[in-house]
Amino acid sequence: GDKGEGSPSANDRSKVQISDGAADASYRPKDLSLLPAPRSSTNSFIKYFALFLLVFQMVGLVLLMRFSRVTKTGDDGKEGGLYLASTAVFLMEAIKFTICASVIFHQSNYSYSNFTKAMNEAIFKSPLEILKLSVPSLTYTVQNNLLYCALTNLDAATYQVMYQLKILTTAVFSAVLLKRQFSTRKWMSLVTLTIGVALAQTSGTGDHTSHHHPAHAGGEADKGLDLQAEQNRIVGTVAVLCAACTSGFSGVYFERILKGSPRVTLWTRNIQMGIPSIIIAFISIFVKDHAAVLSKGFFQGYSPIVWTVVIVQAAGGLIVAVVVKYADNVLKVFAASFSIVVTGIISYFLFDFEPNAKFILGTACVVLAIIIYSRPDTAPSRKKKGILPTSSRSRK
Question: Which residues contact 230 (CB under 8 A, 6 or more apart)?
Fold first, then answer.
């Protein structure tokens, strides 16, 4: 659905080398269109800026969400109640829809008639597309609620490591739903990934919000805190495992339905997914938090940090979808691996996170598995390109 789908990529153009003589000012071909595009620092800047945005989205959002779920302060700076995750998911979907609509309005040259026509084509003339996209919309909404639950009960570093199981679930659903074949090396990397996640989860590490302070050790109160911390860890683990499953299923299902769908732009596709997502998120508020909304209000517990989380989550996914077009597979793998390490380091200073040898070993296994899984097979196939297959465009 992208306009540049059929044109040579920056990487393709970069393969054409220009000699020093060709770069000389005296060289003046009659047809300038025949002159290959020279390599410049612009492409490198775009790629590494894309890398920065990928790492920022992977690390920043996780740390912000964790901080917002353990800091119960209101706008006045006083201790307050925790905000409702269901309302945050609804606002995130509404903001994402608004951003996509704004981009389409811009692409319509700020013409209300063109904008209305484009929205009419995307929504009212594509009911079947919206109906098919309701399934991934539902699973994505459930996934976002699960992520809030996971980061309420798990420290950011452990969450970041465990959530990499979405690679495993994506591979399994790809094999089942898309009949995709994976090499033995890839399956072994998935086994390594699972072992690493298991080591990290059972390491017993945590931050100051998930463990009591050692200075208060001893007594029945201490046992109660230990029990509560263990219960929280179990809840967080179940939540992140379910989120990894919904992530894998959503991505593969989305890829499957795109195969027989008309090719549309990223922004139009997000508009079509946004409508059922907003409806489902709105329904989930009253199914899950109806009483809380009536008693304390829709925006209970909201602070500048919470609003930042909502906005970053709404814009972050769209930004990543755009910059991934400029980041090659090596950069995406580096971003995923680097984000795990950076999250652990920042958690050490921000949340007093104290990793032990078991957690470090598990993290190393996960990073190694990501690197091995992303390497192309001996007989490369385009449909295996990338870490997480999420688009039918991998098949030409």
Answer: none
